[in-house]
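User: I want to check something. If I give you two sequences, will you return the structure for each one separately, not as a complex?

Assistant: Yes, each is folded on its own. Here is the first sequence with its structure:
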Amino acid sequence: MKTDEINKVVDEMSLSENIELADIPDIELYMEQVTGFIDDRLKNLKRDSSEKTLTKTMINNYTKLGILMPPKNKKYSKDHMILMLLVYYLKQVLSLDDIKALIAPILNDMSTTEDDVIPLEDIYSIFLELKSLEFEDFKQDIEEKYNVIRAKTNEVSQEEADIKEKAELFLTVIMLIAKAHANKRLAEKIIDKFFK
């Protein structure tokens, strides 16, 4: 497999697509509107079409766990939506207990957002900026590591080209898992040491 084919797969992941602050409705929405909006806007991140991005049950659980402020008159504000989006990304790696520990000191009192240490909109804007920077670094890192993998498997004969390609892809997956594991462990250690 060529490096440009790996780059194409990386681009297909839609990691650079974001729900910008300006895209989030600044009016209060009912739960069905919230789930519909987020599900529609994050549909490119789904592994398959049957996967649900956000459900009513998830929202209710986040509220019960104290990760999300209770709705006002069954309606969710822009702050609710921002927090749900952040939880969506955090949940890909962290447990709900870790997410609660991480969010609690930043949001202080979950019943209001007026006394937040850093305003939720600022946190979300910084998150989007860091996410974009990480994606650019990610693309470059994958390309460099894939080239190293290809160089290490170069000695396989031409007759075994199909096996060589599978070996390169296998090693690429193993490298990605190792990197994801290291990142996850570091995030957990930071939460354990400074947030619990």
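And separately, the second sequence with its own structure:
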Amino acid sequence: MRFVEEIVVEEFLPTFRSMLAEDLRERGLTQREVADALGISQSAVSKYAHGEVSRREAFLEDERVVELVDRIGEGLATGDMTPVQALVEAEVLIRRLEQGDLLASMHEAEMPGLAEYDGDLSVHDPDSGLRNAERVRSSVRRGLRTLTNASGFAGLIPNVGSNLAECLPDAAGIEDVAAVPGRIFDVKGRATVPGDPEFGVSEYVASVLLDARRGGADANAALNVRYDDDIVSALADAGHTAIEFDPDADSNPIADEVAGRDDLTETFVLYQTGGYGIEAITYILGPDAHTVARTVRDTLLN
């Protein structure tokens, strides 16, 4: 009797870890950094680097394994992906390979009796809440890097600060929206991000995003910047729908303005020109945090 988990441990993991260690080394990480990223010893990294660990050809040639190694390697090297997300992504691939796929075929070769059964056992949910949450946080990190690497972004930050937020697919409240804790501020001409994205830490930007979604907008992310006519005009001239709303309205002005519109572009703009004790603000909304950040960079900073 041989379990599929034995094939995973004895054949898939050594191959996968060696591929990932090789990828990270090629990206310039030191042996110690690779060991820390993968949670293994430096001696294990050395063995992988010197080809002292046997590798299964089937995994080396599988496009999905190769693609995941590249994606995790990039994410760990840039900091966009945490070890937790890397683990979850690898687990999802393993479970998929176990269900009527490559690992299942290997398992059936060693346990022929399994081939008699057509059904697959679902032992892992690829749409788990943890996976979705880590993906959203990774997207926000990527968007933040785009903004902070762009020259001049600090000049777009309003007095109340900026924030970049993205929500879970079925977001119902602020706790389902990831953003920067404490907001992004201009510190001596430099955009400063005080912490790693967290869920439930944004009130204003998250509320704008959720209100737009309640109005029927197909948006998952939002960023606020300062308001002036030139900013709104530049975004509108670039093809993004621009909608003004009244922050002093008694009802839900954002949902009301968005509801029923058939001219919303994938990335669109909401803005208000201020009110009593309310700073004028421009909001850019789109499908994900990186797209929103890229829109601001390409439209307002180039």
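Because they were folded independently, the notes below concern the second chain alone. Strands lie at 164-167, 177-179, 185-187, 190-192, 198-199, 221-226, 242-244, 268-272, 281-286. The two ends are 63 Å apart (CA to CA).
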